[in-house]
Amino acid sequence: MLILSLALRNARRNTLRSFLTGGMIMFGVALLTCGMAWTSGAFGGILEKASNMMGPVRIVTPEFARKEQLMPLEENIEDLAPVLAAARAAPGVTGAWARIQMPVTLTVGDDIGEHFALVQGAPPEWYDRALDLAGHIQSGRMFKVDDEASGMCAGGHHGRPPIEAVVGATAAETVGAKLGDDLILDGQTQDGSISAVKVKVVGISDLGSSAQNKFVYVSLATMQCMADIPTGATEVLIYGKTIGDAAAIAAALTADPALSKLSVSSWDGRPPFNSLASIIGALKSMAAGVIVFITALGVLNTMLMSVMERTAEIGVMRAMGLGRLQTVVLFVVEAMGIAAVGGLIGATLGAVVAYYGLEVHGVNLGGAVNKMPPGLAIDAVIHGDWEPIMFVQCFGLGLLMAVVGGALPAFRASRIEPVEAMRARR
Amino acid sequence: MLNKLTVWFLPALAALLAFVSHAQAATPTVADLLAKIDANMTYDTRESFITMRVTKSDRVKEYKMHSYGRGQDEAAIEYLAPSRDEGTKMLKNATELWMWLPSVEKTQKISGHMLRQGMMGSDMSYEDMMDAARWQTMYTGVVSGEETVDGRKCWKVELTATATDVSYPKRIIWVDESAYIPVKQELYALSGTLLKTWTMSDIRTVGNRQFPFKMTVVDEVQTGSMTELIFDKVTFAIPLQEEVFSTRWLER
Fold first, then answer.
1. Mean pLDDT, chain A, integer
2. 3-state SS of chain B: helix, strand, coil percent to 5?
3. At B22, is the pLDDT very low, low, confident or very high (cuts 50, 70, 90)?
4. Which of B58, B104, B105 to mutate to test the interface with A (most CBs of A within 10 A)?
5. Which of these three, A192, A223, A239, is where a domain ends?
6. Over the stretch A343-380, which tens digit does the pLDDT of each residue have?
7. B223 reaches A (C-beta below 8 A)
8. Do A191 and B56 contact (CB within 8 A), yes or no?
9. Do A191 and B57 count as a contact with CB atoms less than 8 A apart?
10. Nearest of B93, B96, B89 to residue B75 by alpha carbon
């Protein structure tokens, strides 16, 4: 109790120094709060969006999994029906849909090879569940699925209804496509033959990320015809209630003998996310570590000044019976007292900025996201994600800053010999 | 003694010199070989019906084509089968390649790197399939020896391109000594990587030339990929309608 009252008295004695120490803690804690909220929102958003896009759980052939960067159409699941049935019967599964993706060139003139894009074919239910495509149509409407039109892509178009497509905003802008335009998608069949499909642009979508805005979205039947995989697809994507269910669903499907020849994986077990999750964790820890370290250095500096100013006083206290351990505790408690006040203000200030500035308003990255590699679905506006637990975490880290920064000066104070200290008269 | 030498040694020396000079005369020059290959493989006009069989791992796809060629620069192909590719047409005019795709009812130009991609997923590029340029004008090289390929005595010739815009900067070819057909070719990239092995067989006499009715191309980069080209019917030096080599023919 005596130590505590001494520490508090010392903290009040030099208000400027205490204010400086507390200010540093406050700034460090506020920065930490904002940093944690922003990284949590940014990385969490990227991971959730990407896992939805890629399928929280995915079934492909082992060869497709091995060569997936090449999007090998020839490595497809030939007969979808039993695979979809097995997937939908697994516990925790709320939906399972097939998908085919293919690189294409978009043509508006006579030349092939002017504009590259990716075309994606899946049932409308998948577009609703994974992308909310209909909700992100910038102009026009969602495509309608017409089996007659989609299934006859290999023949001419005379007398048949047009195949409809929604085009991502970036792809539409690149190729100069407008609503109502005929767009030619030049791709390949699974055998490598040239396969071209004429689609009518009925909608232009803005899904908020550059990767998703480079896609052309069509029905699964259109892609099956285009790729010449009449009853199959390259991927089956499976969804639970949340992405947290992915591991359990993947485990259940892996154990299913009907799927034994196929490759089942949850999103965090597939590249690039299998390594990205740990990299993100390391980055977050590193950022927090840097903030704690720098703030602790500031605390160390002011507390060291305090020890040097009070050498004689410490000598007297030591002569009057204050032990070494008590001296250490005295200075650490002083630092923690200042940190408690600074940390409380910092965590509050940080929470306000993190919530209103980052989570509600967001940070607009502008055109920078267009330079991101395709596959990383990064939104142009990144929103933070502040949670109440961060208040406690950051306040705790503020106290840690004080302990780390105050420890060395405290040990230095504890080594002061009373006689030498009084002789120095400081 | 001197007489004995004169009697035995000089005739033996003369015989040896004659043998060596005969042997030297029997090894053709690269220019001769390329001229004879060109005489067999190039044409003024050609019409053919071709079956192309593409094997990739365990999947085999067969195409039927009707092909026309005129000189070194003009070629046209119409796909007759399978049904999804029926009516697809290709037209090569000098360095330009046009394609009619019935699925989109549109003529499109294939340009740049796409010319060197596999035609209809095969191991033969559009250039391979439609190129009829004379090797004499494109390559120089050395005859590096004699080897037997599939029971045929061949000259082994290493060719290096004299131009920079050729598909294969280096070829090693084995030329049948009697038919003057390159029964085997190894096609290399500028880096020295072996890209394809191309063999020619079923050599038959067509008019006054020898012509291989079967060609097999193996992609040495992509394992498990092979393309066979079987000429069901070939006719040379026939009159062809002017329209065949126009974009009007594509859209007909």
1. 84
2. 25, 50, 25
3. very low
4. B104
5. A239
6. 899 999 999 998 888 888 877 776 665 555 555 556 66
7. no
8. yes
9. no
10. B93
pLDDT confidence of residue A152:
58
Q: Identify the closest residue of chain A to B109 by CA–CA distance.
A: A111
Mean pLDDT throughout A120-144? 93
Q: How far is CA A282 from each of CA A285, A313, A354, A385, rounded to the nearest angstrom?
A: 5, 45, 21, 18
Chain A's closest residue to B61, CA to CA, is A191
Where is pLDDT greater, at B20 or B143?
Answer: B143
The pLDDT score that the predictor gives to residue B20 is 45
* Nearest beta carbon to residue A188 from set B84, B103, B121: B121
Q: How many CB contacts within 8 angstroms connect chain A with chain B?
A: 77
To the nearest whole Å, the CA of A71 is away from the closest chain B CA by: 15
**Listed residue (A296, A318, A334, A297) closest to A415, CA to CA:** A318
With an 8 Å Cβ cutoff, are B108 and A186 in contact? yes
Q: Which residues of A touch B121 (CB under 8 A)?
A: 188-189, 191-193
Residue A383 and residue A45 in contact, taking contact as beta carbons nearer than 8 Å = yes
Chain A CB within 8 Å of residue B114 CB: yes
Q: What is the pLDDT of residue B224?
A: 80
Instruction: Say whether both A358 and A288 belong to one domain.
Output: yes
pLDDT at A238: 97
* Domain boundaries, position A137: 57-239
Comparing B108 with A76, the larger pLDDT belongs to A76
* Domain termination residue (choose one: A224, A239, A254): A239
Identify which has the larger pLDDT, B33 or A319.
B33
Q: Name the residue among A83, A44, A92, A39 with its Cα closest to residue A61.
A: A83
Contact between chains at A156 and B105 (C-beta distance less than 8 A): yes
Q: What is the set of domains in chain B, with CATH numbers?
A: 31-250 (2.50.20.10)
Whether ipTM > 0.90 holds is no
Does residue A248 sit within a domain? no
Residues of A in contact with B104 (CB under 8 A): 157, 184, 196-198
Which residues of chain A have a CB within 8 Å of the CB of B83? Answer: 154
Residue A218 and residue A70 share a domain: yes
> CB–CB of A194 and B88 under 8 A?
yes
Chain B residue numbers with beta carbons less than 8 Å from the beta carbon of A195 are 103
pLDDT band at B24 (very low <50, low <70, confident <90, very high): very low
Q: Which residues pair with A107 in a beta bridge?
A: A184
Give φ, ψ of A14 to 5 degrees.
Answer: -115, 90
Does A125 lie in the same domain as A157?
yes
Q: What is the pLDDT of residues A132-141, one digit of tens each?
A: 999 999 999 9
In a shared domain, residues A91 and A29: no
**Cis omega before residue A257 (within 30°)?**
no
Q: Average pLDDT, whole number, for chain B?
A: 87
Cβ contact, residue pair A196, B101, below 8 Å: yes
**Rounded CA separation B96/B64 (Å):** 23
Helix ranges (DSSP H) in A55-159: 62-66, 80-89, 124-126, 147-151
A255 in any annotated domain: no
| Chain B positions in Cβ-Cβ contact with residue A188 (cut-off 8 Å) | 121
Question: B99 to chain A: which residues are within 8 Å by CB?
Answer: 112, 194
CA angle B50, B51, B52 (to 5 degrees): 115
**Is the CB of B59 less than 8 angstroms away from the CB of A110?**
no
- Encode B99-117 in three state secondary structure: EEECCCCEEEEECHHHHHC
Start-end of H helices in B77-143: 126-130
